[in-house]
Amino acid sequence: MTFLKVENLYKNFGSTKAVDGISFEVNRGEVFGLLGPNGAGKSTTISAISTLIPPTSGEILFEGRNIFTEENSLRQNLGVVPQDIALYPTLTGYENLNFWGNMYGLKGSGLKKRIGEVTEIIGLNGRIKERVDKYSGGMKRRLNIGAALLHNPKLLVMDEPTVGIDPQSRNHILDTVLELNRQGTTIIYTSHYMEEAEYLCSRICIMDQGRIIASGTKEQLIGLVKGKTRISLRLDKADKDMPERLRSIKGVASAELMKDEIDISGENVDIVLSEIIARVTEHGGRISSIDVRKPNLEEVFLHLTGKALRD
Ligand SMILES: Nc1ncnc2c1ncn2[C@@H]1O[C@H](COP(=O)(O)OP(=O)(O)O)[C@@H](O)[C@H]1O
Ligand SMILES: [Mg+2]
Which of 15, 63, 236, 305 has the fewest CB atoms lying closer than 10 Å? Predict the structure, then answer.
């Protein structure tokens, strides 16, 4: 039976079609990504799955049962990390976790033990007894994630958990996602950062304007664009004969000289990078920088919508 199934989901706010007829399935044990720009409808979808807002129409089934109309176990099994931080700034990290634990019906030594485990997972040991208003943005985010983990949910929903934080906290959160998944938690992860979706997700739905415009594995999505890999070689000195020499290498579809830079492209041209470098150097060329760009989800989005994922 499908773990979570979203079928023909619509949500209107007045005349705004926030979610405009989307369907997808999340399998038990995967990290499922909803990728899209601001306003795509990601948070609205997440709110409906969290039963915080009723859909205008459509169904959401958890283990085969409608989450709004049938008796089901979604609530006990769901952890939600909202896009906006939900913490009490004047309480300590520990007190916040204690509060949320009580909300889930946890108490006593069981809760105390679980707060210890969660503190370890989110990497706030040593700081958990400090007031939250002393925390950095990244620490608040991590505590916010911790609050959603106390009751050991089977399904964790994370809404853009890395927006506006330092790179160290961001990396910590990404690794936490993978570790929780390795331990068996199914995760729905929303983002407008394509590299996060690429790094984390087994399957991805790309959303725009309330609709799913493409879905599949990262490889399937990238396969939608006949993407070419591009290599830029910066040379110490321009050599107008170099592009022609490089074009004779099998796998190089084009090579053009622009000032002191040669732009090379081909479907998998990175495979022959060492040959390219050898050809340049054996003709006396000296390379000062190399940049390799493989097709990515950003290009998939551009290809499908004609606009950039990030504004
Ligand atoms: N409570 C609301 N009232 C009115 N409009 C809303 C509300 N929530 C979201 N919207 C609108 O719905 C669209 C989708 O928003 P949202 O789901 O927050 O997108 P995302 O999370 O992908 O940025 C946007 O146009 C947004 O302004
Ligand atoms: Mg959002």
Answer: 15
